[in-house]
């Protein structure tokens, strides 16, 4: 079994990636490599932040690793919150505040199209490789469901009539932005 260091402090992302990744790989967390600090994510793009997090871990801990950054892009808001998704409603980074702000900004708006975009940056022996996954869908009129995290109570993926938070875990992990980006990473690793 091959080990992969996933440069994130988000336990939801680790759980999803472990569920997606299958039996050939074992995910090592930042805790496992003794990294307990916040990773920097200060660039103004999603790919830039993914690379910044992976590069930080590679430079400070000397291990091959991958990181991901995810944004919610809403058509009627010109692509916002985008790179600001994590702290859209303020520095408290509250998921409920964030999705309530989105709901209030879309009040009376008929175009509710949105997508989640994940970019994974992999660093192998100092070389950088990136993989993208997009989940198209729309923003619900009101939140529903207890599953998932972040904006999952208000994001309804195409082909479904319920938000990610109200769909079985396996469904999200087979069609999500993160699942698609991970599939790109896994097929790249399988060819090495
Ligand atoms: P980051 O990629 O860790 O910067 O996270 C960006 C923001 O997107 C956070 O507020 C997360 O809650 C949110 N987010 C990331 N992935 C998902 C997801 O799969 N579903 C819902 N929200 C997400």
Order of helices and strands: EHEHEHEEEHH
User: Mean of the pLDDT scores?
Assistant: 96
**Any guess at the CATH architecture?**
Alpha-Beta Complex
CATH topology: Maf protein
Secondary-structure-based class equals: alpha/beta
Major pleated sheet: 6 strands, mixed
State the end-to-end distance.
15 Å
- Total beta-strand segments: 6
Given the structure, what is the number of helices?
Answer: 5
Judging from the principal axes of the Cα atoms, what is the shape? globular
Attached small molecules: inosinic acid
Strand arrangement across the biggest beta sheet? 2-1-3-4-5-6
Please state roughly what percent of the residues sit in beta strands, choosing from under 5%, 5-15%, 15-25%, 25-35%, 35-45% or over 45%. Answer: 15-25%
- What helical percentage do the residues reach? 25-40%
User: What is the CATH top level name?
Assistant: Alpha Beta
Which residues form runs of ≥5 with pLDDT under 50? none
Number of domains: 1
Radius of gyration: 16 Å
Which terms summarize this structure?
globular; Maf protein; single chain; alpha/beta; 192 residues; binds inosinic acid
């Amino acid at each position: 079994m091959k080990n992969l260091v996933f440069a994130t402090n988000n336990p939801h992302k680790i759980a999803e990636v472990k569920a997606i990744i299958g039996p050939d790989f074992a995910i090592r967390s930042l805790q496992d490599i003794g990294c307990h600090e916040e990773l920097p994510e200060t660039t103004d793009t999603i790919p830039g932040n993914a690379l910044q997090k992976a590069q930080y871990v590679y430079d400070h801990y000397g291990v091959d690793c991958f990181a991901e950054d995810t944004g919610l892009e809403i058509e009627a808001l010109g692509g916002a919150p985008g790179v600001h998704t994590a702290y859209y409603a303020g520095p408290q980074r509250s998921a409920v505040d964030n999705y309530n702000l989105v709901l209030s900004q879309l009040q009376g708006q008929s175009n509710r199209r949105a997508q989640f975009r994940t970019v994974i940056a992999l660093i192998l022996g100092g070389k950088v490789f990136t993989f993208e996954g997009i989940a198209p869908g729309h923003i619900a009129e009101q939140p529903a469901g207890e599953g998932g995290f972040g904006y999952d109570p208000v994001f309804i993926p195409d082909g479904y009539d319920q938000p990610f938070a109200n769909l079985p875990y396996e469904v999200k992990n087979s069609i999500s932005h993160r699942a698609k980006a991970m599939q790109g990473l896994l097929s790249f690793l399988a060819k090495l």
